[in-house]
């Protein structure tokens, strides 16, 4: 088998490990079914293998390391959805995929099928280091300084089954980007890493620590500005050790690293990390250029060849077809190669379920990836899909292919590109349903011309305070709350996850579910009525402050 | 043992759980079995529910269920859960009508 473009090629050791792990879990499932293991004993074991028990069924969360798949892996996910689920999968805000209708007794078989394509569900739950996320345009974007995937893979290998970090005080999330434009919400992670070239050309890493959303949203603080590549693992190890030693284990709501950093201050945390580094055998953790190159060699590099007139062809096609032009405007990004372009495929059809894709769509995406992007697919933390290396003169053919399976929505970064957690329709933790509100908003703003007129405006919806829909980081955020068994939604405005990260401000009392969509429509109308030329929603909000938007939201209440 | 739930007028309690094998929502019936349709759920007063809950929890592994608890319903035919959460558990996700669970079968 050839080396896949975009992600690490497994070897025999990786595959043998997966088989051993599956056999272990199969034994645990058998012991659970025969009663040898109680539910209390089994629960942490199944969670370590990505298996949750939700409202209607078991849910299996499958890891997609740094969000990158090859077409055979994507095809396998489509087959699993068809065979073991109800013909669809849900892409998550952690660049993973969830299957909502899984049977416990089928799980070992599903894991075996995943292992056939070098996939698993390990560490997609539990108090461990979760799936490391990365820039969805990694290795493709013109604005990128360092391709973060090789280091993301190094972090994956370092964090997988790390003996010290399997039972942390709480879950731990790491994101890495190599672009000056933060597309990974680095400052809302337990550790956010921004790579750039150092003076000698070798990468250095700016490290933020203690960010997060959830019950206590916090913007991460810079711990180090320029960690050298050779010290990256030692530094992360030291950060985790300090957290593991001092993070709270007496209160689940105060157990994340952000609480520890807030409690002692980032300076004290830095001192503790430096003290830890001072007593570590740094040579043991040294990331040598040879080690990095050995990992890099397991990634195939796409051969980016395009005809000289590729750009001219695309320009002409855009002139000839306004609908295609609109899609290109919203759903593409500049590639580092002038003959190529990055295409983002929206999983947010008007009135649809954010992040859901049917088996047929998943398999068609795999075919399109083979035809147009070296068989490589990226899942974004905004619940969309990216084909990273599309020849410009073939982009319209891709768009036509997407149209055939309902995947040509022109709304990336616009109001229809809503991020939503599964909410109370599935999730055992949720207080309110996220998806129906997303569907109503999607239908309300279905007109793509209207969406383009509104411009950049991101809506994020979470069904509970755990904030899987990242509502704190939404330009408009919705948090579902339960009031005596009924659904209400709290509105926030002004959140952002990109550069200049900010936590949204609560506008006022939570609104009943059936008043929420109208309230948001009034907030949008307020913006459209008062914006000045060239302003985005966030620009107008910054200029006017929250009060006009608060008045608009509550004017009819 | 947990204290009896305070029920409002016109409300009863039912016992619910998830099936161990596939996680499906189930309800405790008058026949002393776990059934997938809330229409067959046994309606209980608060004190009766306490006794039945203790018994069902003890028997959970034998009966192949997980996470037994009680929840309030309107005393109607068929019974209707009081909270949105339990309505969704009883009838299926609201966003996929094709996956709806019938009240009784």
TrEMBL record, chain A:
<feature type="domain" description="Nitrite/Sulfite reductase ferredoxin-like">
    <location>
        <begin position="353"/>
        <end position="403"/>
    </location>
</feature>
<keyword id="KW-0408">Iron</keyword>
<keyword id="KW-0349">Heme</keyword>
<dbReference type="InterPro" id="IPR006067">
    <property type="entry name" value="NO2/SO3_Rdtase_4Fe4S_dom"/>
</dbReference>
<dbReference type="GO" id="GO:0020037">
    <property type="term" value="F:heme binding"/>
</dbReference>
<keyword id="KW-0004">4Fe-4S</keyword>
<dbReference type="InterPro" id="IPR051329">
    <property type="entry name" value="NIR_SIR_4Fe-4S"/>
</dbReference>
<dbReference type="InterPro" id="IPR045854">
    <property type="entry name" value="NO2/SO3_Rdtase_4Fe4S_sf"/>
</dbReference>
<dbReference type="Pfam" id="PF03460">
    <property type="entry name" value="NIR_SIR_ferr"/>
</dbReference>
<feature type="domain" description="Nitrite/sulphite reductase 4Fe-4S">
    <location>
        <begin position="125"/>
        <end position="279"/>
    </location>
</feature>
<dbReference type="Pfam" id="PF01077">
    <property type="entry name" value="NIR_SIR"/>
</dbReference>
<feature type="domain" description="Nitrite/sulphite reductase 4Fe-4S">
    <location>
        <begin position="418"/>
        <end position="553"/>
    </location>
</feature>
<keyword id="KW-0411">Iron-sulfur</keyword>
<dbReference type="InterPro" id="IPR036136">
    <property type="entry name" value="Nit/Sulf_reduc_fer-like_dom_sf"/>
</dbReference>
<dbReference type="GO" id="GO:0046872">
    <property type="term" value="F:metal ion binding"/>
</dbReference>
<dbReference type="GO" id="GO:0016491">
    <property type="term" value="F:oxidoreductase activity"/>
</dbReference>
<feature type="domain" description="Nitrite/Sulfite reductase ferredoxin-like">
    <location>
        <begin position="58"/>
        <end position="117"/>
    </location>
</feature>
<keyword id="KW-0560">Oxidoreductase</keyword>
<dbReference type="GO" id="GO:0051539">
    <property type="term" value="F:4 iron, 4 sulfur cluster binding"/>
</dbReference>
<protein>
    <submittedName>
        <fullName>Sulfite reductase</fullName>
    </submittedName>
</protein>
<dbReference type="InterPro" id="IPR005117">
    <property type="entry name" value="NiRdtase/SiRdtase_haem-b_fer"/>
</dbReference>
<keyword id="KW-0479">Metal-binding</keyword>
């Amino acid at each position: 088998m050839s080396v896949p473009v975009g992600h690490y090629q497994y070897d025999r050791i990786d595959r043998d490990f997966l088989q051993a792990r599956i056999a272990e879990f199969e034994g645990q499932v058998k012991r659970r079914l025969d009663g040898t293991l109680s539910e209390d004993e089994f629960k942490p074991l199944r969670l370590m293998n990505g298996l949750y028990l939700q409202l209607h069924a078991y849910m299996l969360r499958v890891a997609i390391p740094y969000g990158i798949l090859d077409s055979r892996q994507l095809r396998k996910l489509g087959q699993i959805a068809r065979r073991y689920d109800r013909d669809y999968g849900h892409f998550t805000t952690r660049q993973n995929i969830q299957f909502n209708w899984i049977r416990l007794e089928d799980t070992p078989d599903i894991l075996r099928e995943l292992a056939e394509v070098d996939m698993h569900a390990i560490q997609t739950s539990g108090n461990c280091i979760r799936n490391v996320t990365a820039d969805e345009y990694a290795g493709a974007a013109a604005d990128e300084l360092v391709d973060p995937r090789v280091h993301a893979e190094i972090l994956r290998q370092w964090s997988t089954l790390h003996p010290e970090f399997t039972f942390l005080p709480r879950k731990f999330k790491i994101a890495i980007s190599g672009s000056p434009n933060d597309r990974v919400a680095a400052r809302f992670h337990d550790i956010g890493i921004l790579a750039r070239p150092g003076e000698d050309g070798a990468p250095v890493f700016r490290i933020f620590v203690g960010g997060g959303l959830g019950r206590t949203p916090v913007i991460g603080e810079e711990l180090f500005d320029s960690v050298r590549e050779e010290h990256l693992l030692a530094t992360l190890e030291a950060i985790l050790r300090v957290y593991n030693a001092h993070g709270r284990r007496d209160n689940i709501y105060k157990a994340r690293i952000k609480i520890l950093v807030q409690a002692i201050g980032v300076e004290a945390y830095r001192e503790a990390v430096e003290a830890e580094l001072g007593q570590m055998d740094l040579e043991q953790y040294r990331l040598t250029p040879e080690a990095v190159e050995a990992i890099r060699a397991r990634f195939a590099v796409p051969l980016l060849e395009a005809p000289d007139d590729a750009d001219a062809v695309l320009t002409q096609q855009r002139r000839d077809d306004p609908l295609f032009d609109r899609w290109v405007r919203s759903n593409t990004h500049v590639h580092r190669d002038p003959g190529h372009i990055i295409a983002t495929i929206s999983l947010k059809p008007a009135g649809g379920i954010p992040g859901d894709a049917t088996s047929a769509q998943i398999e068609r995406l795999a075919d399109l990836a083979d035809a147009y992007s070296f068989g490589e697919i990226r899942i974004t933390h905004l619940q969309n899909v990216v084909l990273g290396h599309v020849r410009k003169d073939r982009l319209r053919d891709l768009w036509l292919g997407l149209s055939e399976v309902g995947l040509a929505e022109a709304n990336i970064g616009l109001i229809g590109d809503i991020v939503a957690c599964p909410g109370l329709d599935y999730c055992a933790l949720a207080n309110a349903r996220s998806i129906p509100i997303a569907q109503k908003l999607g239908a309300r703003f279905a007109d793509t011309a209207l969406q383009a007129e509104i411009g950049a405006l991101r809506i994020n919806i979470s069904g509970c305070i755990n904030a899987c829909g990242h509502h704190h980081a939404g330009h408009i955020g919705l948090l579902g709350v339960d009031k005596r068994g009924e659904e209400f939604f709290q509105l926030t405005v002004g959140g952002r996850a990109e550069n200049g990260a900010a936590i949204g401000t609560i506008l006022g009392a939570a609104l009943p579910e059936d008043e929420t969509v109208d309230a948001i429509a009034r907030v949008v109308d307020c913006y459209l009525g008062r914006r000045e030329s060239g302003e985005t929603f966030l620009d107008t909000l910054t200029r006017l402050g929250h009060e006009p938007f608060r008045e608009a939201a509550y004017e009819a209440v | 043992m947990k204290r009896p739930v305070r029920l409002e007028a016109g409300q009863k309690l039912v016992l619910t759980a998830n099936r161990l094998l596939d996680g499906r929502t189930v309800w405790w019936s008058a026949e002393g079995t776990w059934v997938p349709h809330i229409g067959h759920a046994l309606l209980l007063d608060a004190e009766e529910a306490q006794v039945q809950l203790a018994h069902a929890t003890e028997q959970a592994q034998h009966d192949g269920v997980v996470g037994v608890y009680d929840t309030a319903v309107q005393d109607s035919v068929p019974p209707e859960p009081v909270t949105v959460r339990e309505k969704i558990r009883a009838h299926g996700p609201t966003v996929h009508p094709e996956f709806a669970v019938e009240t009784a079968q």
